[in-house]
Each structure stands twice: as structure tokens, then as C-alpha cells.
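User: Second chain of the day. Same drill as before.
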Amino acid sequence: MLTTSRGIEDIVEKEIEEKVGAFKNRKDLVNMPGRVLVELNEESVSKLLALRSVFHIVRFITSFKIESSKEGLRTIYNTLRSLNLSDVIEGKKKFRVTSERSGNHEFTSLDIQRVAGQAIVDSCGLKVDLENFDLEFTVDVINDKCIVGSRLTRELLHKRGYRIFNHPAALKPVLAYAMVRLANLREGEMLVDPMCGGGTIPIEAAYSYNGKIKIYGFDKVLKYVIGAKMNAEKAGVNNYIVFEKLDCALLSKRLSSIDAIVTNPPYGVRMTPITGIERLYRVLVSEAYKALSNNGKLIVITLKFGLMKKILKNLGFMVLEERATTHGGLHPHIIVAKK
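Assistant: Same format as last time:
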């Protein structure tokens, strides 16, 4: 089972097919936002570590329905207590339980961890160790479904290791990768991020296309441009990206015939009044329209998706698709528009 951001599950599936090979999708067992369950040959599992669209790789154990009342905790305990986990715990002595919960329930994630941990202790005799564990169980509850697995990745795969400069509003690389994939560029085409911040989108594009497209990253703040260059150098892709200090209001004066503009503009959470973010979005969309080639795409992620769609349509864009996703506890939308 692969965990990812809600709304990009199909991108995960495409990446698995490309990098791992044919697989059987088990939506019959797990069909939930942010989860992709696949059936693979054992020798293919190590190839999953190369995926750029996922957070964790989890060995699926079981899934079952539970109540939203506190009776749900009893169901979790009884189900886990009855499982045969011998092949999962083989050679392991210490474990911990982590849990994600979504929906309305009369219990918390900590309650889930407590009863699930007790069930495993009672069933297998393992010791709980939150720090020095050698086995991590995941017991996630989403609405009326509980999914149990054992985590195969200790560290989040989206922690790329290239972020030696941290932008204060950095986009998760998993989402940056997904947005780049939505651009669907061909060899020799051009991708531009006019608000590149720490360079996550251009870097993910460079990884994805390996020198086969032209990539530009602009930002009006010099400190961010310098930081983005540092990150790209650490990632080993600095030769594939041109970084420059440039205000997005000057984009069409700097470049034309751009095939895709992929960017993470400010969400507007700290910008008041609303006219501030509206003005910024109008400048971005207007410049994008002038700088894009015919049929060029603008791909943005924003919390103000209603405002962004209105501006896109008013300035001549056609909205092709919209995806609700999650990012840092917020629920922005990814919008793909065509000139």
C-alpha cells in the first residue's frame, strides 16, 4: 500500500506502471483517498523506493469496517487480537503503532494507538518502544474503515535530501512532482515556475525529464533564487535549470511560447484584504496568458480555488481539470487550465 496526498492517486498508479511494471490494483480492498493498494511480485517491492509520488510504502495486512462510536475501539482491539501476525513479526522484538484518523469519531488517534498496541502485545508478546522500534504498525481510520499495515519505509520518501535551503512556504515534493506530471510535456518543450521559491517544482521537473526539456525558475526575492540554486546543486540537477531573479509581472517580457507554467503562488492566508491576493493572481494569470504558447497550460495549486477559476475564465483560459488535495493540514486544489 502506497500513501500519498489525496487527489493524485492516479499519478501514483502511472508512476508504478512506468518504474515497477505491471501490477494488480486492489481497489476492492482499499479504495480511499491518499491510498493506493497494489499486488506485486516480491522482487518488485524494492523498486517502489524510486517512486517520487508517495510518502510511505506499507505492507497491507487487513481492512475492516468499524463503528464511529467508542465501540469502534473494541472492534479494532478484537480484530487485531485475532490476527495471525507471525510472518509480519518474524525476528522483531520492539514495535510501535502510528495512526491517521479522518472523519467524525468518538475517539482520537491516540486512542487507536493505545488499543491497537495493547492488542498486539496481548497477541504477540512484543514490547512497545516508541523510539527504538524495529517494527511499525499503521492503524489508520478513515470514516468507517480501518486499514492495518506494517510500514516498510522508516523515513518519508518525499524527504528528498536536497533541501539545504528551506523556503517558508515550500511545496511538498510529492505535489510538485504530480503537478509536473500534469503538464505532460514532450521532449524539447519548456516549463517555467515564475514563483519558484526554494525551487521544488523546477527540481522535480529536472528529475522527471532528465535534461529533455527546458526549465526556468524565477522569483522576485533574490534570497529565494540563491536558495533554489543551492537546492538544485545539492540535487545534482542545477545544469538542467535556469534560475533568475524576476517578478512574475515581467514574465511575458522575459519569455514567450512557454509550453507549461507550473507554480505554487501564495495561498493568501496571511494576505489581507482579499484584494491583495486577487491582484497577485490577476497579474500571474494575465502574464501567463501572454507568455504561453497556443494551447499552453497553466497549472497552479491554491486555497483560493474559486477566485483563481474566476480569474482564469475571465482572462481567457479554459479550466481542464481540478483536483482537491491536502498540504500541511490545508486543503488546496490543483487547477489545470489551457490557453
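The chain has ten helices and 17 strands.

User: Great, on to the next one.
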